[in-house]
Amino acid sequence: MPRGLFITGTDTEVGKTYVAALLAAELAAAGCRVGVYKPAASGCAVASGDGPCPPGTLVSGDAVALWEAAGRPAELDRVCPQRFAAPLAPHLAARAEGKPFDLELLRTGLDYWTARSDFVLVEGAGGLLCPLGEREMMADLAADLGLPLLIVARNALGTINHTLLTIEAAERRGLPIAGIILNTPAPRPNDPSVAGNPGEIRVHCSHPILGEVPHGGPLPESVRRWVRGLAG
Ligand SMILES: [Mg+2]
Fold first, then answer.
1. Nearest by Cα to 153 from 170, 136, 172
2. What is the pLDDT of residue 1?
3. How confident is the model over 155-185, as pLDDT tens digits?
4. Residue 124 C-alpha to ligand 1 middle, in angstroms?
5. How many angstroms separate the alpha carbon of residue 40 from the centre of ligand 1?
């Protein structure tokens, strides 16, 4: 199994990119050549030309964030080869725009990064059961890429259910789970579940809860040590 992680979320907007970028930066700072890959992105904006993308092209903000965090390795265009404008599941966005959606490229696009990296971080779109067409889902892509899952969960009311559903879907498909990180994507001053969520998930789950990332905060030391250990 190549060294790397497939980062999935319990929902969209739980902070997959935020956590993946922190991991990429941690690995790059440790001298690791980090490859970052987002097989497909929707909801992309048109580049104005101010950033690293040519004006008029579709920009995946996630791809740019991952690429910057990894130290701008190789070509940005290869981080996310399939980009769509509509904020829909990627194959639906492609259809809405009359563009092809290349299931093979979702898989082969990673080869570019495995060839030039010590460690690869792949960020899925949506969660494990986000459809990638009529026949397959993100979980099928994760299985084919052969990387263990890192599950990013929102540390908020409802996350016990979302996290356990994601774990059940992964286990049912035989996908290995490296661990779970709880992230707080927005301040939650009045959510009394936040402090207890990690412990409550642990009661029902045999996979490691690696740590919690506070809103806008850094990786906890436990996660930093863990990911550096994975990269060897
Ligand atoms: Mg993202």
1. 170
2. 43
3. 999 999 999 999 999 999 999 999 999 999 9
4. 8
5. 10
Phi-psi region of 71 (alpha: psi -120 to 50; beta: other; left: phi over 0): left
Give the alpha-carbon dihedral of 101, 106, 108, 114, to 10 degrees. Answer: 150
Gap between the Cα atoms of 140 and 105, Å rounded: 14
Return the structure tokens found at 57: 């092209």
For residue 3, is pLDDT > 80? yes
pLDDT tens, position by position, 23-60? 999 999 999 999 999 999 999 999 998 889 889 999 99
CATH assignment of the domain containing 175: 3.40.50.300
Instruction: Specify the number of domains making up the chain.
Output: 1
Of 49, 51, 26, 47, the C-alpha closest to 36 is 26
Please give the residue range of the domain that contains residue 19.
4-231
Q: Which residues are catalytic?
A: 38
